[in-house]
Every structure is written in structure tokens, then in C-alpha cells.
Amino acid sequence: MLHDDVAKVIEVIRPAIQADEGDIHLRGVDEDTGVVSVELEGACVTCPASTQTLKDGIERILTARVPGVTEVVHVGVALLGAEEGTAVSL
């Protein structure tokens, strides 16, 4: 149930993120802890304000509109690769 409610709210806020050349995708909801995992894409990946958007925007909206949501975290491909120790070469 929590997942469906979160997905509905993300669909409502998605156009605002897309208007700034970014996007957001729901990747998971931990029903026990209330932690929502999202992936930010496009301009959001390199934007210096993306952390502020995530916490002060997306997290604030989700915690206000969906009872049970406690936190929103970004789980992008680049972050997952870094956690696994994947080397990056230029």
C-alpha cells in the first residue's frame, strides 16, 4: 500500500522535475522503515542543487502526503557502482 501511495505522489511531482531537464524514478519502498529509494536522472545527476531538491523538495512532499514515509534516498547507477568499488577511468 505504501508503495502505491508513494508512486502516485511521484507521478504528480515528476513534471516539475522534467521541466528542469531531469527525471525521477521510484526504485523501492521499505515498508518497515518508511525509506523511499529513488533514482534521479538527466540534469538532476550533475545539478549542484540535486541534494536540496531531494531533501527539501521530494522528501518534504512525500513525508507530508504519505503517512509512513520517513526518508527519501537516491540510489543512482553511479552511486551503486561506487559502493561496489567500481573503478572509473577518464
List keywords for this structure.
single chain, 90 residues, 3 strands, GMP Synthetase, Chain A, domain 3, 4 helices, alpha+beta, 3-stranded mixed sheet
Question: What does this molecule look like?
Answer:
The protein has 90 residues and is of the alpha+beta class. The protein has a single domain, classed as GMP Synthetase, Chain A, domain 3 (2-Layer Sandwich). Helices cover 50% and strands 22% of the residues. It contains four helices and three strands. Strands 1-2-3 form a three-stranded mixed β-sheet. The longest helix is centred in the N-terminal third of the chain and has 18 residues, at 2-19.
In the CATH hierarchy, the third-tier topology is known as GMP Synthetase, Chain A, domain 3
What is the second-level CATH architecture?
2-Layer Sandwich
Low-confidence segments, given as residue ranges, are: 78-90
Topology pattern, helix = H, strand = E: HEEHHEH
Helical/strand content category: alpha+beta
